[in-house]
Structures are given as C-alpha cells and as structure tokens.
Amino acid sequence: MIVVLIIAILLAVAIPNFLRARETSRARSCQGNLRMIATAKEQWAMDNKKSSTDEPTPAELVTYYIKGTSGVMPKCPADGTYSIGDMGTWPTCSIGDNSTPGDQSDDHIYLEAGS
Questions:
Q1: Cα distances (Å, whole numbers) of residue 24 to 10, 77, 92
Q2: pLDDT digits (tens, 9 = 90+) for 42-68
Q3: What end-to-end distance do the CA atoms of the chain give, in Å?
Q4: Which of 28, 21, 19, 36 is nearest to 95 (CA)?
Q5: Is residue 115 domain-resident?
Q6: pTM of the model
Q7: 61 CB contacts (<8 Å, ≥6 apart)?
Q8: Is 23 domain-assigned?
Q9: Closest CA to 85 of 25, 44, 28, 26
Q10: Which domain, by its residues, includes 61?
Q11: pLDDT for residue 92
C-alpha cells in the first residue's frame, strides 16, 4: 500500500512537468521555424530588391531560401498555421499563447524580430 502511495505521489509530481516540457519543446520548435521563415524573407527581399511592403509567396521561399524542408513550408508542431506577412512584419503562428498565465517562456507570440 505504501509503495502504491509513493508511486502515485511521484506521478502526481512528474506528469505536469512532462506536459510542460512537451509544450515548451513545441513552442521552441515553432519559434525556430518562425526564425527560419523570417531569415528566408530577408534573403528573398535582398536578392530581389524588394521593399518593406512586398510579400513573398511560400513557393518563392521554399524553392530557394528554406533548405531541408522537402519543398514544403515548415509546419508548426502544435498544428498551427504560419502567416508570412510582408517584409515590414514578423511571421506569426496562429497558436499564439500556450495559456500558461505568468509564464511567457513557452508562448509562441512573444518571439520578436531579432530574438
């Protein structure tokens, strides 16, 4: 009985930590994808002499500037969708906030340009 109680206590402590680690991992992966898209946009703009109001298509970015993605845009690991936007805006993810009040470390929306 005591062994079962100890295991239950350990699980009660461990499971929330595993869930938080998974969400944090998803958010970091998403942030990396957003950085990759932003870098590809900047390269596209420099190569094609575009202004801050121009917007690349996903096909333009994947074809020449996003390597290792097998010809497709990166996907958000939390099943969100990415908006590329024009050159004056940072790419965004539709997931946004991971709903952990007071903790912005795993939120998609707090990734700023240059972070």
A1: 21, 11, 17
A2: 999 999 998 888 999 888 888 788 876
A3: 51
A4: 28
A5: no
A6: 0.72
A7: 37, 40, 41, 44, 73, 84
A8: yes
A9: 44
A10: 2-97+104-110
A11: 84
